[in-house]
């Protein structure tokens, strides 16, 4: 028994037979592998962020006296260690890049007009830069005992 194949008409066509063009498998797309790398980054950074966040929560809430112990002095003591500065910096940067990449994907999916997409991405990238720069500056320039400050405003661990 022999079978004959009939091409299925393309959607929104007149219903007649269509010729399907062959596409070379070696043809490069205009985006390259950018979306693939973004997809992979989201998976890897998500796993790393889960570990960083649970470590952060364990140290801040479980290991010590809980939420009541978190104050200016706690943060100052924690950020006096390069380990915790690096931990919090990595958490900030990964969370911001991860979130920005996710919102960028949403903008690409739902913003129909090119102008709207451009404005939304510009606002997104501006917010990303502002938060990352300010957060990095706070982590590395934080001084709990600034010079020439009134002694009554300094924490108890500072020597006036």
TrEMBL record:
Q: Which Gene3D superfamilies match?
A: Fumarate reductase/succinate dehydrogenase, transmembrane subunit (1.20.1300.10)
SUPFAM superfamilies recorded for this chain? Fumarate reductase respiratory complex transmembrane subunits
**Top-rank lineage group of the source organism:** Bacteria
State the UniProt keywords alphabetically: Heme, Iron, Membrane, Metal-binding, Transmembrane, Transmembrane helix
Q: Which InterPro entries match?
A: SQR/QFR_C/D, SuccDH_FuR_B_TM-su
Region described as Disordered: 1-25
List the subcellular locations: Membrane
Q: Tell me which positions the record assigns to the signal sequence.
A: none
Keyword Ribosomal protein appears in the UniProt entry: no
> What name has this protein been given in UniProt?
Succinate dehydrogenase
């Amino acid at each position: 028994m022999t079978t004959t194949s009939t091409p299925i008409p393309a959607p929104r066509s007149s219903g007649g037979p269509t010729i399907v063009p062959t596409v070379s498998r070696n043809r490069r797309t205009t985006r390259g592998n950018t979306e693939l790398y973004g997809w992979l980054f989201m998976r890897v950074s998500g796993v790393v962020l889960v570990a960083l966040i649970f470590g952060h929560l364990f140290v801040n809430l479980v290991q010590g006296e809980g939420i009541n112990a978190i104050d200016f002095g706690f943060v100052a003591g924690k950020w006096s260690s390069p380990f915790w500065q690096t931990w919090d910096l990595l958490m900030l940067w990964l969370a911001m890049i991860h979130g920005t990449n996710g919102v960028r994907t949403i903008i690409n999916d739902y913003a129909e007009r090119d102008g709207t997409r451009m404005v939304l991405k510009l606002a997104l990238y501006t917010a990303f830069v502002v938060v990352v720069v300010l957060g990095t500056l706070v982590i590395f320039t934080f001084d709990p005992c600034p010079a020439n400050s009134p002694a009554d405003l300094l924490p108890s661990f500072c020597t006036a």
